[in-house]
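User: structure tokens for GMP synthase [glutamine-hydrolyzing], please.
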Amino acid sequence: DWVMRDHVAEAVALIRKQVGDEEVILGLSGGVDSSVAAALIHRAIGDQLTCVFVDHGLLRLNEGDMVMDMFVGKLHAKVIRVDASELFLGKLAGVADPEAKRKIIGSEFVTVFKQEAAKLTSAGAKGAKWLAQGTIYPDVIESGGAKSKKAVTIKSHHNVGGLPEQLGLKLLEPLRDLFKDEVRELGVALGLPPEMVYRHPFPGPGLGVRILGEVKPEYADLLRRADAIFIEELRNFKDEASGKSWYDLTSQAFAVFLPVKSVGVMGDGRTYDYVVALRAVQTSDFMTADWAELPYALLKKVSGRIINEVRGINRVTYDVSSKPPATIEWE
Ligand code: XMP
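Assistant: Done. Predicted tokens:
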């Protein structure tokens, strides 16, 4: 629509004016906010933008390739993909505590990102001068209010605060005044595919908090395949009354890996394999959430496919806990 097109033109003009002919670095995660920020800044300044995409090895099935296809293949943006999966999995080996895992993933992420950023800023006068972030209006409010209000940390989130100062970079935040819905509309106006722009949120620590306890490559592999089946079927199944898919009718849905073995039977044989839990919630603010009343036919299809297609998983359960007292993620 023309209002959004106007907004794009205005935002592009503002970025050009701010940045001039200087270089910009942006941390691209594949999430909605950083993706829209990248597309917008790329529209404004093209090759003056370099995106750094740190793949911590805890992304969803084919996610890294999809990010590269979109930003490099379609938008022709400059993206440095850092495959840090061995580093992250190495640091996580033997660590089972959820907060310890979050801290490791968060701090390794900052370390890797800083190393890449340092390469881009070191080119003297030609080096990058700006760090772009996909901060949106609710983030601005949250970090302002957090100090006074939040007494207890339930889960430590990725914290990249202070990064611009540490890198000696100026901060570029073109989405600062926008609400999530506006960010999504902007993304569509910039030509990002709706499936990307309307994707469910995904936590910074990724599958690291969806594999309970110690993270192992084998677990991540099984989880990725189970999760992809769940999401594919949520997109396939339409609710007749609304015509919407169950993916669109839920706010967040994913599989969780339980490192517990249970007995099953397949053909003439006995199996002794891992368990996957499915989680799907409906919420408007993610502070409280109801478990989604998915149709049994959908659950049946998903569990049948996971057990048949993902060798190593022989049992699927559905999580019927609301938040509170449960949280949305299991860790
Ligand atoms: P919980 O599990 O606390 O999650 O009910 C609420 C929402 O926050 C997301 N989440 C995270 N997002 N970094 C993120 O960027 C994190 O460390 C993190 N932990 C939870 C979660 O996916 C849900 O949408």
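User: Anything notable?

Assistant: The chain has a mean pLDDT of 94.
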